[in-house]
Amino acid sequence: MLRNKLLSLEQYARERPAFRRRVIAHKKMRTVALGDHVVLQFEDALTVLYQIQEMLRIERIFEEDGIHQEIAAYAPLVPGGSNLKASMLIGYDDALQRRQWLSRLVGVEHAVWLQVDGHAPVHAIADEDLPRSDALKTSAVHFLRFELTDEMRRALAAGAALSAGVDHAHYPARSGALPQAVRAALCADLIPL
Question: Is the pLDDT score of 146 beyond 90?
Answer without folding.
Answer: yes
